[in-house]
Design brief:
- This protein has helices at about 25-30, 30-40, 60-65, 80-90, 105-120, 120-145, 150-165, 170-185, 195-215, 220-230, 240-270, 270-275, 280-295, 325-330, 365-385, and strands at about 1-5, 45-50, 50-55, 70-75, 145, 300-305, 310, 315, 320-325, 390, 410.
- By secondary structure, it is α+β, with helices and mostly antiparallel strands.
- It has a single domain, classed as Cytochrome p450 (Orthogonal Bundle).
- It has a six-stranded mixed beta sheet with strand order 1-2-3-9-6-4, sandwiched between helices.
- Helix 6 runs parallel beside helix 15 (about 365-385), helix 7 (about 150-165) packs across helix 8 and helix 7 (about 150-165) packs antiparallel against helix 11 (about 240-270).
- It is globular.
């Protein structure tokens, strides 16, 4: 395992977590940084005096190993360095969410939520996803040009998750606004802390109102399903229910929206892929989505903590070490993916990516996100076969944890 040393012209690897940023060049294009770090070693160590080290993990096998290692905790508070970063963030991750729980709590929460998700198959949602996509494109057709992020990917993702959760249509824009503010706070933007706190308070208040309404009169929606979920006689507590709803809303919206826009960008930027997308079958589209997830992973990093000592890349890792698993780097590891920086919708092993994690914490919403990406992107090509990029190099959001375009203007 190598120390975190890179050429002097590059920023030194630093902790990647809530409230932390690297240079602006990193957020715009992190992949050259990933490549140089991985070439130095798939695991880089950053020493801190008086504390366990931080590790940046860029190698595919190493990331995959840690994601399934029971000695590694999803609870960031187990690592002093990550605990300090959480304390400094404008908005702390919800500690009642299964995202930051270990077994047996994680297993219990996941089991309860899995019951709710399995009641409505993704295939049953697909016609509704397509209808929502078409409705957004109807407006675009009258304009002749639109932003595939603000005018399409984000509204579609918002509407899908809102309908799934039973949020009334008149509240969609409010929920979308809260989501954006909370994401800005969670990932360390300049958004005022008071705005973040107010948005969280308003969102939680609205959730509590919806929970009370569904307890009195259940409907065919996810909130009702979560309230009814049972596992060995256990239920979600109210704090756990709030944590779960916030996780589903924020993660479900942002990952899908970024994935939709990235898929469109990937296919429109190259003439061969563009041409193929116009008449491709379901199997081709499914693989193109997997390749997009590998090439531009919507979630770039996950944080973990070593709960006990362990061995990684031939070195002992002390308990309490902070582990930053760079999914975006692992998904471009040339040991696994040939010509990894190239977008190839026909790549045979594209589905081996780690964009949705691996092991016990594999994303429960993966199937829904895949369906949204494929249907929303494909519908654009069906409706506007002559669509093209209005901006050859659209800007990427300069964040560390998420990968998404700021805008994607299209001419149709």
């Amino acid at each position: 395992m190598a120390r975190a040393l890179v050429p002097s012209s590059d920023p030194r690897p630093s902790p990647i977590g809530p409230g932390r940023r690297l240079g602006s060049g990193f957020g715009a294009d992190p992949f050259p940084f990933y490549r140089r770090w991985r070439e130095a070693s798939p695991v880089l160590e950053i020493a801190h005096e008086g504390e366990p080290p931080e590790l940046l993990v860029t190698g595919y096998e190493e990331v995959r190993e840690l994601l399934r290692d029971e000695r590694v905790s999803a609870d960031r508070r187990r690592a002093p360095r990550l605990r300090a970063l959480l304390a400094a963030a404008p908005l702390r991750p919800d500690l009642d969410s299964m995202l930051v729980r270990d077994d047996p709590d994680h297993e219990r929460l996941r089991g309860l939520v899995s019951q709710a998700f399995t009641r409505r198959s993704v295939s049953a949602l697909e016609p509704r996803i397509r209808a929502l996509a078409c409705a957004q494109l109807d407006t675009a057709a009258r304009q002749g040009r639109f932003d595939a992020v603000a005018d399409y990917a984000e509204p579609v993702a918002t509407l899908v998750i809102a309908e799934l959760m039973g949020i009334e249509s008149q509240a969609h824009e409010r929920f979308r606004g809260w989501t954006q503010v909370l994401l800005a706070g969670l990932f360390g933007s300049a958004r005022a802390k008071s705005d973040v706190i107010r948005a969280r308070r308003e969102l939680d208040g609205t959730w509590l109102e919806l929970i009370c309404a569904r307890r009195a009169a259940p409907r065919d929606d996810l909130v009702s399903d979560l309230l009814e979920a049972r596992d060995a006689g256990q239920q979600l507590s109210d704090p756990e229910l709030l944590g779960m709803l916030n996780l589903i809303l924020v993660a479900g919206h942002e990952s899908s929206a970024n994935g939709i826009a990235s898929t469109l960008f990937a296919l429109l930027r190259e003439s061969e892929a563009h041409e193929r997308a116009r008449s491709a079958d379901d199997a081709w589209w499914a693989n193109a989505v997997e390749e997009t997830l590998r090439w531009q992973s919507p979630i770039q990093t996950v944080a973990r903590a070593a709960r006990t000592g362990l061995e990684l890349a031939g070195r002992r890792v002390p308990a309490g070490s902070a582990l930053t698993l760079l999914l975006g780097a692992a998904n471009r590891d040339p040991r696994v993916f040939r010509a990894p920086d190239r977008f190839d919708p026909a790549r045979q092993n594209a589905k081996q990516h780690l964009a949705f994690g691996f092991g016990d914490h594999f994303c429960l919403g993966a199937a829904l996100a895949r369906a949204e990406m494929a249907i929303a992107a494909r519908t654009v090509f069906e409706r506007f076969p002559r669509a093209r990029l209005a901006e050859p190099r659209p800007p990427w959001r300069r964040t560390v944890l998420l990968r998404g375009l700021e805008r994607l203007p299209l001419r149709i």
